[in-house]
């Protein structure tokens, strides 16, 4: 199945898309022959514990999961499987989190934290690694990011090759029509956040562009 | 710890007034020309009147020209060396046309931190309401500025 | 400028609006700044001033980019149709380069007697650079209202 693991609804300060608009747009993509099975809302610096999108998910036939995108001193990190233990240990609103502590805390609580857009100039993990910083707990990075500028996804791909990291694909959509521009193809069936963490830990996934999900092209 | 922002919080709830700003036919025409808008209702008074307007129609975001004429106080933010215009929102509530006289009322809406391509930034959002000579709200404008290190 | 009325019933999710293609010349920006009352030279009109603010060259004022983007929508529909235009300035917009403005319909709904259309709107460069992005809300007339 194909999931977009990085998206922002109006719950994030810089997004202009409602969750329902994302789901409506996925219907447009499906009519155009693309496959998009689900999205993960990764709002900036917060976790929307009380937001329930199950009715919308059922109405539109799209898996809707929740995660977070946090600001660290080493760039942005996507967090999946967020739970009360993790939010108690980590201040999600802090814009200068220690990424290494975040990754350790996430695993301790059964969640997973990984670098978003590592090839992004000025803020990506690649820049920090070039300065000599080491991140021994990184196994997976966001290899395809739909909001990347020219060259940034290529830097992420080089990083994956050099370090042996696995990659996910994500839109980083802040507008409805950008959802699922890049997605992650999973072997497993993912229905909730725990399934997602488990699937990420198995390593059985790959990043793809939306164009690669066309049914006709895959058959 | 959440980033502790140091700025003048007493500015919340304070309105800063400016105007009146007279919307003239020449101003609307010059604005239209600078953006390449050739539509008759924006340029020709007779065409605008024939279409039911009282004068040449100001393109809906033209009121943003007046925001810089509101004297906004320094919020005394202790962060950043430079600022840039990060975002702009116009909610149009009514047509503005030549002959209208607008007043502006601005207030500090919010200040918040985040990190982006330029590192840590602090966003400052001002909101301005424009009313016409009849007291009708014709537009709400929000301007966001980002202070960066 | 719209020559024909765009009706709510004729608009579908996924419809593309535009593109509007423009090049903002130096003189256009100077004229805009003059009207705006922004003292010149400034970073919008002058190379040296722009470089002092860490820009590669003079750029379009944000409100000028916004005016260009609004134009796509008001020319498609009408000036009164545009209810909300909410933009994020993602990269500086250069002078004298092709600018492409396009919108995509992402939602249509009837609410409180209004026929509302939401669009994503983008200003991009020749290499696909995303200069400005955001959303717009328009209220369109209905054929049913006209026939009723």
Care to describe what's here?
The complex is a heterotrimer of chains A (219), B (149) and C (148). By secondary structure, chain A is α/β, with parallel strands linked by helices. Chain A has one domain: Metal-dependent hydrolases (TIM Barrel). Helices cover 31% and strands 25% of the residues of chain A. Chain A has helices at 19-31, 54-60, 84-89, 99-108, 125-130, 152-163, 193-202, 215-218; strands spanning 2-7, 38-44, 63-72, 75-80, 112-115, 140-145, 166-170, 182-186, 205-209. The longest helix of chain A is centred in the N-terminal third of the chain and has 13 residues, at 19-31. In chain B, strand 3 and strand 4 form a beta hairpin. The model of chain B has no long low-confidence stretch (mean pLDDT 93). Chain B is built from four helices and five strands. The model of chain C has no long low-confidence stretch (mean pLDDT 93). Chains B and C meet through helix 1, helix 2, helix 4 and strand 2 of B and helix 1, helix 3 and strand 2 of C. Strand 2 (82-92) of chain B pairs antiparallel with strand 2 (82-89) of chain C.
In brief, what are we looking at here?
The complex is a heterotrimer of chains A (219), B (149) and C (148). With 149 residues, chain B is of the alpha+beta class.
Label this structure with key terms.
heterotrimer, A: 219 residues, alpha/beta, TIM Barrel, seven-stranded mixed β-sheet, two-stranded parallel sheet, globular, B: alpha+beta, five-stranded antiparallel β-sheet, elongated
